[in-house]
Structures are given as C-alpha cells and as structure tokens.
Specification:
Length: about 525
Amino acid sequence: MVIRLSKSGLRLFGLGLVWILLTACASSNQTPTPTIIPLDRTVLAEQALATATPFPSATPLPLPSPTPTPTPFAAVSAEVTPEPTVGPEETAEPIQAEVITAAINIRQGPGLDSEVIQTAQRGETLPVTGVTANGFWLQVDLGDSAVGWITTQADYVRLQNGKVADLPVVEAESGAASSARPALAVAPTAPSTGGQKSSGRLVFATRSGGDLYLVNLDGSGLRKLAGGVIDPVVSPDGTQVAFTRWDGDEWGAVYALNLADGVERAVASDILQPKSPTWSPDGQTLVISFQHGGLRDPKEECRRFDLGERVRLPENARVTGTTYNGDKGQLIICFVQAEDLQWYLRRINVATGQFEDLPSDLYSYNPTWDPHSPNRVIYDGPKGLRQFDLASLSQQPVSADVRDTAPVFSPDGQRLALTYRQHDHWEVYTLDLATGARQRLTKPPILAEPQYNSAAPAWSPDGSQLAFLTDRQGRWEIWVMASDGSEPRPLFDLALQTQLGLDYAGVNERMLNWLE
C-alpha cells in the first residue's frame, strides 16, 4: 500500500486511513497459532521467494558410534485433570446415573480389562458415589456394600441431581483407575463391509498430542500405548512406532515405542517443535520436519509517517492502533505481523540419535519415505509436493498444487494418498507418481451443509484399501474404503467410534497406521 500525505488533507487522511486499514485487515486477520502449528501453504506460496535461498551443503551422516541415549523428558499428559471437586450438600438429593442407551456394562473396576459383573438397561438409575481422577468412570452403589463402575460418557448415561464436578474422586481398591476411555458395554454390531472385508490391526492417535492406541480391526483388543503423541508412524517391520512429543509448546523429542513390550525410548531430543517422522525402508533412519527460524511470537511495532511519505505495512500485518499528531504532521500506525515459521528436514540415526539437517526449502513439511527406495523422500514444499534425493541432496517438484498435503506412500511406492484442501474442507486424493494422474476418492453430496471432511488416509498393507478420518456423521470417526474410493464405510460400530474421542485439527496430522 503506497499513499502520499498532503498537508491540507492530512487530518482527513488520518481518520480515513484508520477506517480503511481496520476494515481491510479485518478480512485478512489470521487465526492465532494453535499449539500445533497449522501448515497452510496457500498463504506460504504467495510469500515464497522466486529463487530459493541457498543453504550450506549438508554434512554426511556420521557412522554409528557409541553415544549415550538421550534422556527422555516427562511426557505431555493428554488427559484432562478434573477441576477440584466439591461434595454435594447433605440436604441435596443423591446424584444418580440414568442409563439412556440400550444397555451398559457395570464393571468390577474402572478399566476395559475389568470383569463385567452386571448390566443396566435403558431407564435404570444407579446411585453414584464417586468418579475416577481422569473423569472417565463413575463408581456406583450396587447395594449390600458392593460397588461397580460405569462410563461417564453422555451418550450412555445422564446424571441427575448433580454433575461430575460435584462427585468425590475415588480410586478402585484393586489399584489406580485406568486412563483408557471406556468402551460400550454391550456387544458391538459389526458394520457392513460390502464385498471387501478389513483385517489386521490399527495403531492410531486420538488427536495431535493425544493418546496412542492399538486395536484389532474387528474392534476388539483396544489397548493404550502412550500419551502426548504427535504424528505416530509404524516401522516397516511393524515392530516399532515412531512419534514426537513436545515439552510445552516449543521443545520436543522423537521417540520409538516397541509394540511387543510397550517400552518407549527417546531417539533424539532438544528439537524445536519436531513433527512428522518417516521411516527409511530398512528401519534404521528417520526423517522429521522441525521448526527452524522465521518470525516467531511477533510483538507490536509502531511506525511514524511524515507529510508526503509513502505508507507501507508488512504483508498480513494486523493494525492495532493509529494516532494522528497534528503538531508534527505525523500519523503513527501500530501493528502486529503474522507469525511466519520456517520448517526444515532432519535425518536421524535411530540407533545412535546422531543427526544432520538437510538442505531444505524455507517451508518443508510432512516427509514420507518411499518404501522401496533408500534415497527418495517426498514432502510438502512452499509451492506443492517436492521430491528429495538423499544421495545427491537434490530436489525436484512432484506437483504444483499447494493444496496437496500430508503425502503417504502406497506399499508398492507407486502412488501417494493425500489430504487435500478442497475450498473450505478436507478431502482424500491419490496421486499416481508415474503419470501425475490424481483421483478424488471422497466427495460430499452437493447439498451437504456444511461440506463434511475426510482426511489423514492410511494404506492397508496390501494397498487395496485406505483407512481415513471423517466427520460426516457429526463426529470424527475412522472409516475405510477401497483404494479407488468405492465402498466407504465405518471401520468400527457407532458405540466404539463415539468412545474413541477422535479429533482432527486440520494441521496435517498423521493419526492412522494399518498393520497386518
């Protein structure tokens, strides 16, 4: 914006400029950056330089040497600590739980592995005597000094004469309460699978920074693996899960969890906002994306503009105030620039934790490693998908559409599954790497309002199907479809889907991994 200030019209200009700047910026204000940084490359593409800034050559990856394993820091808890509880007054009626679904199980303890001792039918009420510290389980009085445990989920029970915060926190006699969300008490009804059935196991995160679970595709065997997990990805041999975890909003580490015994270890730590690990075909190396430079936590700035001076503000700046100084013939404009973080790629030796930073674009997100090539990594760049050759450290474009995000290689290395920004919502596409042909696999009806989302695809081990997240039924659920987009259907029954508490935040998070 370039404006010349004339003496006679300076006062009028000052008032008019306030109105113009405030109304103009109102349409371009950006949503405050969430804990996990949004990767909106449509804006980044407009700001990208015509010529990439040169970077120093990468140092070859050191050979493995005895290096102390980094000490993991405390995991970020994905559970919400209930507010301090206040017991109900003695004169108040006792709190009761009314069953509002067909039936629920009453368990011996507050956990999925606890024995079912009774069931309660729709319309029954149970006296409630306490709640677990994580807020997932209610202790109920069964009479004759016996107690049981039921879910707190509002889809299954409704509290009368009080709320969860009014209940005292209690522990089960057999030990600490389970942190897993309770599943439906009655036997699930398997969803229709059409002509193709799904088998195997699924490793999934409930959200970015949430809990990590393992479950059979028939809905059985749900088991919590870890908490505070970001972008989990299973190793090629199916024995480990790599993920990142942040200590607060900034520094983090990369972890590897053994699926056999549940033991996790820190592979590399002291990394600024690490995301999106991807395994090499031999399972010896990881490539991650991490925050590296750019404008972080911008502060308010003020600039003075004299008579006749051109008024210029940074792109995407938000005006916070203006002041007109008639005595000096100056207009003072205060503003805050939009946060502009830059992301690089880093290669890490899983055994030793040694690493090297790769020559990267200013914005390099969501790397995915070709399962059949030790040197081919594809990632989101500022102007579309790019291919990185780890042998020559060279790059070349794969696509020129900035809405292509979060690529995932098919098991045969021939296609990518993508989360694609379709106007105001997310869709799932595939991209054929040999021909460049793309196929849209999900599409809401034209009259659907709002247009529902489909995102975060994960290939089946044989490449014939894709699991993905969708909110088409009003909540985020895990669905499955054939690799051509046909036969979309829920992977689990409605009761289990509701209990999982899934949430996709639109920051290109990876949440699903399909195992044999």
